[in-house]
């Protein structure tokens, strides 16, 4: 009885984190929420006009009444990994999620280029803040987060740095074009970039090795991820790199970001560029980041 009494007192005095341990995986990653008959989850497909083309887009809408925080999720180059499992997890956590294909990619009309992809990401971000969009999809414009994988990581940082209304930035093994340009100075680096572009061109329209390489060589100030992250400033930022991907780039740009925001969080995991064996962990990291930005999201 004495031991039991001591244990009861110890538990009563224990901090909440010890008394009620947080789940290892956030429930939104693994468990469907109860259906909401009045305001069910849904999905809308449409196009977003963008300069001389348009973006084939899908908006996953969260269940529940009222305004919802919203995630803009940007895929990479060319976008073989869509990360739609992350979109579904974010929606279960109460977030709307907008995904899209850049101009000239995967059937979206127009010509693909890195400059166009930057403009497309910006136009998508502005679309989420238009009054008609806000009213139709019940968007909380005070809680818009941008996330991006690989090239989409650069595009996410690019538009978030330029738009002060972005509340958070989540980068998944992000690509730094400036590092690619530096690598082009060596035969090995040039060969690797040529092989990368050759494998990625089939779903893209109007792009070539020469056009894409010229872009990042001539617009060095624009296509510098570290510079974009410094410009993003002190808003919430999480970077997750991949050891077997381009995690070295993640480490370098995280150091740049930390010079402006010491609270920048960096993790580099032992996985490949697509996080093939870390999908649950990646979804969990994203959901927890989103909950940090908008704790009251359903």
Polypeptide structure, described:
- This protein has one domain (41-293): Alpha/Beta hydrolase fold, catalytic domain (Rossmann fold, 3-Layer(aba) Sandwich), CATH 3.40.50.1820.
- Helix content is 44%, strand content 22%.
- The chain contains 13 helices and eight strands.
- The chain has an eight-stranded mixed sheet, with helices on both faces.
- Helix 4 (84-92) links the parallel strand 3 and strand 4 (96-101).
- The model is unreliable at 1-20 (pLDDT under 50).
- Residues 71-276 form the AB hydrolase-1 domain.
- Residues 1-19 form the signal peptide.
Quick summary of this structure?
The chain is α/β, with parallel strands linked by helices and 298 residues long. It is 44% helix and 22% strand. Strands 1-2-4-3-5-6-7-8 form an 8-stranded mixed β-sheet, with helices on both faces.
